[in-house]
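G.,

No rush on this.
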Amino acid sequence: MADSIRAGRMRLDLDQHDLQRLVDAIQCSKPVCGLTHDFYRYPARFSPQFARTVIELFTEPGDVVVDPFMGGATSLVEARALGRVGIGLDVNELSCFIARVKTTPLAPSDIKAIHSWIRHTIPILNMRLTAKRPHEWIARGYQRNIGTRQTWPIRKSLEQALARVTLLKSEVQKDFIRAVLLRTGQWALDCRSDVPTAMQFRERLQQFSAEMINAIGEYARILNSNRDVLSHDQIPSPTIILHRSAETIDSEPSLRVYDAPKLVLTSPPYPGVHVLYHRWQVLGRRETPAPFWISNTLDGSGSSFYAFGDRKQPQLEKYFSTALAAFSSIARIALHNTLIVQIVAFSEPTWQLPQYLKTMCAAGLTELKLQGVQTDHDGRLWRVVPNRKWYADQRGSRGAGKEVVLFHKLTV
């Protein structure tokens, strides 16, 4: 556990084995898997092994872990599984939907109802049968680029399945089925040069539903094993998900009943790096907001809304002013022993990293460095992200292919 934190450096009460665990977790390049992590491929996910190791090393059971840019909710899933209180925020309603499904265990009655729905629905996903068209969603553009000659069988299969979601009785059941359809739709449409057939869609829907039911069952068993840690009256809920910005989070009424976070573990939007948090790319770069339709959530915002501003803006003024406001609010909910750990990538790290660190300093945070551990000449822990399919602000820039892990605390 963290023994002491001093300005300009961090001294950890870790033996060599645990220190190596931390480095290995940061460098982990294994495919994201385990628990409910595979429910959806949210962009810029960090490794569950990284989240798990950081939570284990810097918190105790019952402590509060906050992720102010939770994305795919990796940190919340791991926090709850380890007996910590997880609090996540995101401006993307799709992120909140995914987080809710990934952290909500199902009762046996829910699983029985979902099995029945799958069993009766898959056989009637038939291209010869009519589908109830979601005209309101269509009019608002949520089916853009998925009605082409190649993609219409997938669109129609989703329409037929979504029309039957109302047959389920509880919102938990409906959300879970929507999550299964979301995962299958992403597999069929996102970042593919070819589109599977309707039959292949049905087969994968059957496979994913079985995998996700097994995963949520295993997750529920883990939660049940540590329920005594998070069951006392002072904790109204071991997981809280807020659809909101991190700005002014210090005035959020729902957080007043919780202790200050022992750990802030997050990955904010990356400066100058284009990431589609809210769209799928169909047959090249044809964007579609279909995931919002499938999950019954709303979009209505451009990419700059989710990324702290336009990546092409000179000097990224909007990005850094938004980051300053967000991290200033985060600093106000922290205590002297709160550790802030974040993974960040840059399109042009030469000037963006110094500017980012200046922004953290202006927000009231001091950078810390691990003694005796580094992977680059600057004394920080960097990791290479292979085969990254994002687009930096300048053609040919390679900065976005590397991520750095930053450690901060409140400035004394």
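When you get to it, here's the other one too:
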Amino acid sequence: MWLHRGVLTCGERVTLHSVRAMYSKGMPFPCSLVANSGALITIGDESILAGCSIHAEKRIDIGKRVLIGAGTRIMDNNGHNVDHIPHFGGRPHREAPEPIEIEDDVWLSTNVVVLKGVHIGRGSVIGANSVVTSDVPPMVVAAGAPAKVIRSLRINPKKPQ
């Protein structure tokens, strides 16, 4: 975990899985949380992160009971600017980061990429190997590259006994 003068705030009972032997689906790397100077990462109560990478230059908010699968990457910035290619004489500049919000009860499956400025609504599920480039409404399944809504979730409330 690298905080580079940023801030990490975790709720109660947050789990970070970084041991490959403890994760049956394969874990390409341990959890990596990077908050650069002035950035904030918040993780809500009872969230579970397995072998994922989170890189904030501004703000990334992860809600309560969020499940994040191995290999998932969440970044509120572009990292490197594609216009700065030294052999083409590009000038270095970086586009501004945009905050990410992942609401409560979201499941990000394995190898998901969440890009800057995205808001994922409460209860949604993002399929494996998806690239989330735009907002996802609550209570849906979204998948693909770029991720698109596939269907609404069909939640059957328990009947009283």
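The mean pLDDT is 87. Residues 7-79+96-152 form a domain with the UDP N-Acetylglucosamine Acyltransferase; domain 1 fold (CATH 2.160.10.10).

Enjoy the weekend,
O.
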